[in-house]
């Protein structure tokens, strides 16, 4: 049996463990420095979309949406993962943004993603409470949607445990021993382990993990704030998002509205909430959905996007032969995690990418030296 | 945004005593109380005692904000305060948390049936709202306050039975509470009171990440404090949320804490 | 006692059976149980129920209550309408 250690029990680590646990000769342990879902996975808005500006991100998310559509079956989960496919409505602010939408839709359609432009009438029909004078144009994909991150994670946890994966919480990686360019031992706060493979899926802490191995992993943590309101009657079907205004809002199945903003590009592990966020987001949301004034904010929190230089994931082997890293998801780790899990398995088994159209080179940590990669434009 | 030297969170006798001291020391103070009236639990026992403090507060220095609660505490002691409809943003130099305690719930099957009340809720119903929930009652729990018994007797409510927590099996009733099943048999009454002691109201302290210490006797978490100041600079604590004591001791706590805050603010000012 | 008749959190409809399902999965902290059952995610943030969850963790895992951390508390402790927040920004 080959020993695999996965650092980080968030959604990427969970999908990595799930896929690897289906291979016969791997003994898998996942460690996490905190409680289950203490990181970004337990904090995220859990929106799922395929409307991206690059082929790479379109294909990663398309693969993942198709997985989630039959998630309960794949994971043998008795409960529901609550995949609500009511679409993502993207709002443009001006002609320039509108032209980018047209370009994106052409690319998305060519890859089998059913996105399209909507007229203002169609938007009003989809979201009756929207102020249609407050945006320029809109794009929509009815297969985009939202998942329950806790249910998905629970499903993966149970499926992994069923397949013999071991989980250790409150156990932190402290050091590694490297021999002949391979990690031979992993030393944690609780024990020392011999390993054949080490996988780094530690979210915004993957950079620190790389430091232990003298590898510069070019990611940084960016704080993003989010809030949930009291439950209200069903009023918004799709996720509504604006890139130029840098915010999103959606309604989750049990009633609350969830809304959030982009970060301010400062590198920080801080997950503290601010009053300024409440003031800013309420202003943005009431501008476009003016009848929501009486809806009450119940809770606010924050989480980290682990940002990469081109806002595309790093799913890659490294200069240390048996160390694979998956990070830099720049705010979409959750929505592409099924693809991440499969690609990590491909890397470990030295296979070509098993996802059609995806080239592992485009996800490699080496691409930053070449600087030929395409930057993702459609983000909050 | 409003600016204060001190925000007192909680208008029970601890907070009131603190407010009196703050006004004597001429500190620009805001007292926030989530109830409609001041006095906390002491309102149920001794309204006159409560008013003796209210009278001594100098309104030139102390603003009272009733029916509002502190909803969030942020960096640099910025507070958001609301009554559920408004938003009051406050910047303060110091905070005194005097939020007191609240009744502990116990869990048992059908504990959500109507006509099951915590003992403090019951006291509030009778003492403040003159509502008599029924003619006979069963009490379950391990900490029965003598004031509860006295109030029930004075309201002509017959105490059918007092049951230990461990003897209770379940409550029953079609749509409202009708009775309980216990290890010693079934009993019925008009309503049920749960009386199992209190828990400190420490959410604000935990939101601020104050260091907490577990008290074995009370089986609860209380803030670590030195001279009334918690592990967070500028955040002070007094009253039952600091440690369970009687009203007189809490009154002393409140005024002493403000003296400590006054010294702290003086030191801070001196440093500048 | 029938665990699914004991309501731990009325806001999120969490029963004692839900809590015990997590304990049987091997989870030992309040934060884990909060995420998997939603206990403590309602408006009161566990004020009325977390001491019961702590009791159950303590009994099931034979851990001292002093070793069981309470959950982190976040803003808000009560609700503020969006329009009041927006007014303030103006």
Description of the molecule:
The complex is a heterotrimer of chains A (about 375), B (about 270) and C (about 90). Chain A is built from ten helices and 19 strands. Chain A has helices at about 10-20, 55-70, 70-75, 95-110, 120-125, 150-160, 205-210, 275-290, 335-350, 365-370; strands at about 1-5, 25-30, 45-50, 90, 115-120, 135-140, 145, 165-170, 175-180, 180-190, 190-195, 195-200, 220-230, 240, 245-250, 255-260, 295-305, 315, 325. Chain A is globular. The termini of chain A are far apart. The model of chain A has no long low-confidence stretch (mean pLDDT about 95). Chain B has two domains: about 1-100 and about 200-270, 3-Layer(bba) Sandwich (FAD/NAD(P)-binding domain), CATH 3.50.50.60; about 105-195, 3-Layer(bba) Sandwich (FAD/NAD(P)-binding domain). Chain B has seven helices and 18 strands. In chain B, the strands form five sheets. In chain B, strands 1, 2, 3, 4, 5, 6 and 18 form a seven-stranded mixed β-sheet that branches. In chain B, strands 8-14-9-10 form a four-stranded parallel β-sheet. The radius of gyration of chain B is 21 Å and the shape is elongated. Chain C starts with 6 loop residues before the first strand and ends with a helix. Chain C has helices at about 15-25, 30-35, 50-60, 80-90, and strands spanning about 5-10, 15, 80. Chain C contains four helices and three strands. By secondary structure, chain C is mainly alpha-helical. The interface between B and C is medium-sized, with 39 and 31 residues.
Q: What is the radius of gyration of chain C computed over CA atoms, rounded to a whole number of angstroms?
A: 16 Å
Instruction: State mean pLDDT of chain C (0 to 100 scale).
Output: 91
| Beta content of chain A | 25-35%
Determine the most extensive contact between two protein chains.
B-C, 39 and 31 residues
Structural topology:
The complex is a heterotrimer of chains A (380), B (272) and C (90).
Chain A: E1 2-7, H1 11-20, E2 26-31, E3 47-48, H2 55-69, H3 71-75, E4 88-92, H4 95-110, E5 115-118, H5 120-126, E6 137-141, E7 145-146, H6 149-162, E8 166-168, E9 173-179, E10 182-188, E11 192-194, E12 197-200, H7 206-212, E13 220-229, E14 239-242, E15 247-251, E16 257-261, H8 275-288, E17 296-307, E18 314-317, E19 323-327, H9 337-348, H10 367-370
Parallel strand pairs in A: 1-2, 1-12, 2-8, 4-14, 12-19
Antiparallel strand pairs in A: 3-7, 4-6, 5-6, 9-10, 10-11, 13-16, 13-17, 14-15, 15-16, 18-19
Helix pairs in contact in A: 1-6, 1-9, 2-9
Chain B: E1 2-9, H1 13-24, E2 29-32, H2 42-45, H3 47-54, E3 62-65, E4 69-74, E5 78-82, E6 88-97, E7 101-103, E8 116-118, H4 119-127, E9 136-143, H5 146-154, E10 158-163, E11 168-172, E12 179-182, E13 185-188, E14 191-196, E15 198-200, H6 203-207, E16 212-215, E17 220-223, E18 235-237, H7 247-271
Parallel strand pairs in B: 1-2, 1-6, 2-3, 6-18, 8-14, 9-10, 9-14
Antiparallel strand pairs in B: 4-5, 5-6, 7-15, 11-12, 12-13, 16-17
Chain C: E1 7-9, E2 14-15, H1 16-24, H2 30-37, H3 50-61, E3 80-81, H4 82-89
Antiparallel strand pairs in C: 1-2
Helix pairs in contact in C: 1-2
């Amino acid at each position: 049996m080959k020993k695999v250690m996965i650092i980080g029990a968030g959604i990427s680590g969970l999908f990595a463990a799930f896929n690897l646990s289906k291979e016969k000769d791997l003994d898998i342990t996942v460690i996490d420095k905190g409680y289950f879902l203490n990181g970004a996975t337990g904090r995220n808005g859990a929106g799922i979309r395929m409307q991206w500006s690059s082929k790479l991100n379109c294909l990663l998310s398309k693969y993942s949406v198709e997985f989630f559509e039959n998630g309960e079956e794949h994971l043998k989960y008795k409960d529901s993962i609550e995949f609500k496919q009511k679409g993502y409505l993207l709002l443009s602010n001006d002609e320039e943004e509108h032209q980018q939408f047209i370009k994106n839709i052409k690319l998305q359609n060519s890859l089998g993603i059913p996105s399209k432009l909507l007229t203002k009438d169609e938007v009003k029909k989809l979201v009756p409470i929207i102020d249609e004078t407050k945006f320029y144009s809109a794009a929509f994909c009815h297969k985009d949607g939202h998942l329950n991150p806790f249910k998905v994670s629970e499903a993966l946890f149970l499926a992994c445990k069923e397949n013999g994966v071991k989980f250790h919480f409150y156990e932190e990686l402290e050091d590694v021993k490297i021999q002949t360019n391979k990690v031979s031992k992993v030393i944690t706060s609780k024990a020392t382990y011999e390993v054949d493979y080490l996988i780094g899926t530690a979210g915004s802490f993957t950079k620190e993990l790389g430091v232990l191995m003298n590898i510069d992993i070019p990611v940084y943590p960016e704080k993003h704030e989010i809030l949930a309101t009291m439950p209200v009657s069903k009023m918004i079907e799709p996720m509504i998002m604006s890139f130029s205004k840098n915010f999103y809002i959606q309604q989750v199945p049990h009633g609350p509205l969830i809304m959030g903003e982009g970060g301010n590009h400062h590198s920080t592990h801080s997950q503290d909430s601010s009053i300024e966020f409440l003031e800013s987001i309420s202003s943005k949301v009431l501008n476009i959905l003016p009848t929501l004034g009486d809806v009450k904010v119940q809770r606010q929190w924050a989480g980290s996007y682990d940002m990469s230089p081109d806002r595309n994931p790093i799913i890659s082997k490294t200069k240390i032969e048996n160390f694979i890293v998956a990070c830099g998801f720049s705010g979409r780790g959750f929505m592409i995690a099924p693809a991440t899990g499969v690609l990590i398995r491909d890397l470990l088994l030295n296979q070509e990418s098993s996802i059609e159209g995806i080239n592992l080179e485009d996800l490699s940590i080496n691409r930053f030296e070449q600087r030929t990669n395409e930057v993702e434009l459609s983000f909050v | 945004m409003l600016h204060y030297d001190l925000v007192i969170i909680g208008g029970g006798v601890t907070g009131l005593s603190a407010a009196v001291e703050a006004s004597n020391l001429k500190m620009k103070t805001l007292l926030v109380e989530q109830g409609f009236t001041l006095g906390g639990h002491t309102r149920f026992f001794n309204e006159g005692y409560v008013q003796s403090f209210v009278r001594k507060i100098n309104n030139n220095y102390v603003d009272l904000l009733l029916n509002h609660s502190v909803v969030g505490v942020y960096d640099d002691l910025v507070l958001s305060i609301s009554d559920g409809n408004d938003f009051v943003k406050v910047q303060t130099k110091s905070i005194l948390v005097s939020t007191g305690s609240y009744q502990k719930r116990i869990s048992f099957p059908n504990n959500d049936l109507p006509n099951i009340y915590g003992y403090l809720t019951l006291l509030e119903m009778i003492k403040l709202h003159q509502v008599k929930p029924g003619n006979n009652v069963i009490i379950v729990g391990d900490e029965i306050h003598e004031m509860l018994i006295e109030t029930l007797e004075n309201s002509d409510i017959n105490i059918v039975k007092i049951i230990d927590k461990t003897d209770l099996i379940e409550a029953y009733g079609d749509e409202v509470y009708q009775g309980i099943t216990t290890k010693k048999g079934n009993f019925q009454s008009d309503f049920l009171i749960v009386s199992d002691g209190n828990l400190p109201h420490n959410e604000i302290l935990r939101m601020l990440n104050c260091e907490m210490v577990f008290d074995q006797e009370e089986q609860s978490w209380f803030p670590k404090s030195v001279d009334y100041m918690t592990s967070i600079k500028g955040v002070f604590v007094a009253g039952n949320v600091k440690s369970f004591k009687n009203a007189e001791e809490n009154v002393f706590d409140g005024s002493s804490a403000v003296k400590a805050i006054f010294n702290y603010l003086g030191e801070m000012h001196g440093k500048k | 006692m029938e665990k699914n008749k004991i309501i731990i959190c009325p806001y999120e409809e969490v029963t004692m059976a839900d809590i015990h399902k997590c304990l049987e999965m091997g989870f030992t902290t309040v934060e884990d149980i909060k995420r998997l059952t939603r206990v403590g995610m309602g408006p009161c943030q566990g004020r009325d129920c977390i001491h019961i969850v702590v009791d159950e963790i303590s009994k099931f895992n034979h851990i001292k209550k002093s070793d069981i951390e309470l959950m982190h508390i976040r803003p808000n402790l009560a609700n503020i309408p969006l329009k009041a927040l927006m007014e303030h920004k103006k």
